[in-house]
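Budget justification note: compute hours in this period were largely spent on complex prediction jobs such as the one shown. Inputs:
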Amino acid sequence: MHGPETKLATAVVPPPRWRVSPQIHGWLLLLPASVLLATFTHFPAVATIIDSFYSTPKGRRAAVLVGADNYQAMLADPVFWRAVSNNIVYAASVIPLTMALALAMALWVNGRIPGRPFLRLSFFTPTVLPMIAVANIWLFFYAPGYGLLDQMLGALGVPTPNWLGDQHTALICLIAVAVWKDAGFFMIFYLAALQQVSPQLAEAAAIEGASRWYFFRRVTFPLLMPTTLFVLINAIINSFRLIDHVVVMTQGGPDNATALLLFYIYEAGFKFWDTAYAATLTVVLLALLAFFALGQFVVLDRRIHYQ
Amino acid sequence: MGHPTMKWLVSLVGAALLALTSVAAAKDVTLSFYYPVAVGGPIPKIIDGYVADFEKDNPGIAIKAIYAGTYQDTLVKALTALKSGEPPDIAVLLSTDMFTLIDEDAIAPFDDLLRTDDDKAWLKSFYPAFMENSQTGGKTWGIPFQRSTIVMYWNKDAFKAAGLDPDKAPDTWDELVADGKKLVQRDASGNVSRWAVEIPSTSFTYWLFQGLTTANNVRLMNSAGTQTAFDAPGVVGALQFWVDLSSKDKIQPPGVIEWGTTPKDFFEKKTAIMWTSTGNLTNVRKNASFPFGVAMLPAHQGRGSPTGGGNFYFFKKMSDDERAAAFKFVKWMTSPERAADWGIQTGYVAVRPDAWDTAAMKTYIADFPAAAVARDQLKYAVAELSTHDNQRVTKALNDGIQAALAGAKTPQQAMQDAQAEAVRVLRPYQ
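Corresponding output:
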């Protein structure tokens, strides 16, 4: 905008007396990001670990160092173990089911079929909806008597359980919601990866007489491995991170049958106001996630072929 | 309904305009006021209207009313604000949070504010049942505002179809079971198409349970909030009755019954009777496509329901001037006319007897007698379960009840486990 005047002005300014060394320059560029990361990620994580060795401050009673007391209380807490085992069952079902479904849907909508855009859209819709809304909708799907599920099964004359009110079915119901919610999201990544696969490979395989299953197993699937790793990491994180549906649909009940680890942390922290115990539980969650992340990057990375 | 609504709207717009103009004027005291919304209806609008009216009557005091979400959200916001050094001045929170707030050293009692005879008379003007959850250790920590009880709603058409008197709800446990057996409808293959009764067992499990224990003449805790009696024979008996409704009498759906969908089950005629909060009255009135009745909970050894809902609390970090202004506000908000208006607009039980003598309330009751049932039940009402470390103790009881209802434990075992956990949690407070 200023044009020639500015250029003239800069020409008159004497050169700076001191120069910033490239190292300092680099650190200055990193500063905003590292401040954010340190403030909102590293500091809270360290503070959580420290807090887990103190008692909960209450009113005029300040926090005192209690050593491993919180950890001992945790190991003796049956609800904690219930939450851990629930979370393992939940993750071990949600992760493979979501990924398999995402891949199957991606393979399907990658082919030339009529109405493809609509099919893609309909698979992706659950992702767009907020989890709170999804959980409220599914709450009525599972409603005994007139819920969608009971009406469908009732028409076939099949007796139905009290889906969310029975200890044996409640967690399965939450698993179904999570799979339904996330599969469409992961499908997008698989779809994008599938479109990168060169069509020449398929043509070459066809000339060689390879079956479609053989082609998928030996060509497509290995080529998708980087995407699979990415999806796997996200699926694992989601299975420990998303608890909105627990809050809306069961509040961890009946009798802790659907209590997940993060939900129990929330209860300890913001319902019981036992912040020290919540910090202790958080350390467990942090350790679990760190373990998974390490395992993925160290072990799985070696087996993956990046193009 | 059209005419009064219009009048209310006009006054609301007027109040809003006044509020706008009065913001410009200098205020001596500004108070922040957190409140939750737990029932349907335009609650924030009503509160803003009240606040504007109050500011008009009391120049020099400004109230910053902040809608803070559910009860749980509001408590979380108030306590985290407290921990960061900037608590609200006034908040409406669950009456059962009293011990939690005392233990967090968050709130101040009202007693030293009661200086005149008028003030003392005002404190005595509330229903004693509501004060049970507002006082402990000889001090008053909360002032009743949005309070409720449990009542029984019944579908008159279903009663008629079952050959029962549509205008008479079961008045005892025995009648409930006897009527219930006639009310259950099964199709040709034996599947139930309509249940007789639903007592919800999520979200407020312990609260509904108190509707049964109170009728069985047992109390769940002492008023100091340091002891529970979950394994008392009467408590186990009440739980056995609840379990039997599903497993032995087969008039209630098996397993745990969702609190949120129970009103919908009632509207969909999937259950002939439901127990729920009086706060649902307006909701039921709007959505039931059939004539319905509202009754007190059935009696057994005795009669009664727990109270529920929210109180006004004063946070500690207020100057004397601010406290005096806040006290003025709370007195104004709980005046008979205000209490009556609040009850009519929301479905909450007006918190003092003289509110029911106001002209507005009399007109409302004449048009809708069911609204008076909650009031009549108040003389049998008891305090809602509230102890130190309240949510933990409550969870122990909720888990036990749900385990028994789901058939995982016997009522005896479930209540023994709940009591053991409660004793463990309450040990530091003995």
